[in-house]
Specification:
mainly alpha; protein kinase ck2 holoenzyme, chain C, domain 1; N-terminal domain of TfIIb; 3-stranded antiparallel beta sheet; 6 helices; 5 strands; 6% strand; Casein_kin_II_reg-sub_N; kinase
């Protein structure tokens, strides 16, 4: 449910298709300037960008307003990485995870385990978003529409905090312990290294040996 006090800028931001993975930051958290500590080093025009993010009107040329808009979007992303580490942030992400809004692991033996947004760095503009599977522990590229999201907007720790606090939601299957066994006509196939066959080898003269 959308917070009735949420600024219009945030409402529009969350409606965009490429921002589907983001949760809504509570207006109280958003407007508490303490939560922005240190972010001024990463966002150009921080003060006006923050004012725009909080719903205030900014005066200036179209070029300057575009500049502030980009700063506000970046600031929301960086605040988002902090918010999803809070109890309420994890709860909102949990609602998305339950409906597999973050997607499902493509590995067959993971049984459609839900993916979680993750990053290889907490520093802005270093890496793009990746998706983490808590079942096979592998990383995957997100769909193209989300491929340009800065990984710092979700951070390195969120996915692992989520798994620790919601173990009941994660598929228990360990795909590392399940291996596909190739077979041919009902017989298990040897999967080890095969030595070079003799030049006069003929399939018609060969035979199958059932592996016990």
């Amino acid at each position: 449910m959308m917070d009735k006090d949420i600024p219009g800028f945030v409402v529009d931001f969350l409606k965009e298709a490429q921002n589907k993975y983001f949760v809504q930051i509570d207006s109280g958290y958003l407007k508490d300037v303490f939560n922005t500590t240190g972010l001024e080093h990463y966002v150009h025009g921080f003060e006006d960008a923050y004012r725009l993010l909080c719903g205030e009107k900014i005066a200036g040329s179209d070029e300057y307003l575009t500049f502030c808009n980009e700063g506000a979007r970046e600031l929301y992303g960086l605040l988002h990485s902090r918010y999803i580490m809070t109890e309420m942030g994890v709860f909102k992400a949990k609602e998305k995870y339950k409906t597999h809004e973050f997607g499902e692991c493509p590995r067959f033996f993971c049984n459609k385990t839900g993916l979680l947004p993750c990053s290889l760095s907490d520093i802005p503009n270093e890496t793009k978003l990746v998706m983490y599977c808590p079942s096979c522990k592998h990383m995957y590229s997100p769909p193209k529409v989300f491929s340009q999201i800065d990984g710092a907007y979700f951070g390195k720790s969120f996915a692992h905090l989520f798994v620790m606090t919601n173990p009941d939601l994660v598929t228990k299957t360990n795909p590392q312990q399940i291996k596909y066994q190739p077979s041919l006509f009902g017989f298990k196939m040897y999967t080890g290294e095969i030595s070079k066959l003799p030049s006069n080898f003929s399939p018609k003269k060969s035979f199958f040996t059932k592996i016990q």
